[in-house]
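Re-running Nuclease SbcCD subunit D to confirm reproducibility after the cluster update. Everything else is unchanged from the original entry.
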Amino acid sequence: MRFLHTADWQLGMTRHFLAGDAQPRYSAARRDAVAGLGALAAEVNAEFVVVAGDVFEHNQIAPRVIGQSLEAMRAIGIPVYLLPGNHDPLDASSVYTGALFTAERPDNVVVLDRAGVHEVRPGVEIVAAPWRSKAPTTDLVAEVLDGLPPADVSRVLVAHGGVDVLDPDRDKPSLIRLAELDDAISRGTIHYAALGDRHSLTQVGGSGRVWYAGSPEVTNFDDVEADPGHVLVVDVDESDPQRHVAVEARQVGRWRFVTLHHQVDSNREIADLDLNLDQLRDKDRTVVRLALTGSLTVTDRAALDACLDKYARLFAWLGLWERHTDLAVIPADGEFSDLGIGGFAAAAVDELVATARAGDDESAADAQAALALLLRLTNRGAA
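Result of re-run:
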């Protein structure tokens, strides 16, 4: 038996910083990752797909998103089993029970809307643990496994949520207990645990049978998601009494959310930053967050701003990570002595220089920005 394990599609997700055409392209990429599972399934001869929760970003999803998402699932061409998760639980407003979803749901799409065993075909079963609220007060996996006896079938648990060994809040009542999973695996009650909620590809424990597939398309920066963009190809050997499992990760994501840390104390270091940004590939599908530190002259700050403006036009998004950016701008002696101005204008520049040197308050920052703009307008701060 071979199937695809995926999770956390979160269709309908928006990223607030994406502007212009970047957000529609990002949304389209998330749908394309879903529709593209059909080609992968055909390549590896997979029988079905399990989606371990958070198919949609939330239950109040736009009708257009629902229709486009269902069409993407139809394109997969083999059975697709959807588990409601914390973003799209089976509550009173569930997208899965709405008129549009139920009317347009393709025949190959099955919602795992009850806890317990679902037959895929003779000899293959899914054990589902769907969410019915955003904040369950119990371990849903422990509940669905409680009293479930081993059987002469291949069983895949499909569940969503954090696992206790990976969560710092070990007392959270909804956490999945790894000991429970390992016990169920050792008894032959289940043979593989397909988990969702963690957006990075992650193996849990040492059995090789408990995995988070992660999100097939990146949703956050690399300090939060270390390894997104995968789908798992899972083989369960039905001829083996122990149901040997083999797992292969396939890269399917096309977008990247990258964080770059740079020291910028001189024009040369700004040029190095420019080179590093230039060498990043697929700029239209790359989001860049910059953590910059350093002390700059106003001339160099103007050159830095020109560099950032240039690449902001090329990348899907580029901006400063404010919490980790610390740039001091200190006007250098004689930096504004050859602008060719006099009288009131020269006096105003001198006053801005004095304010810019005075400290790190808001007025100093405004003066620094004004001086940098002045240099750029006189073409001395060009990248």
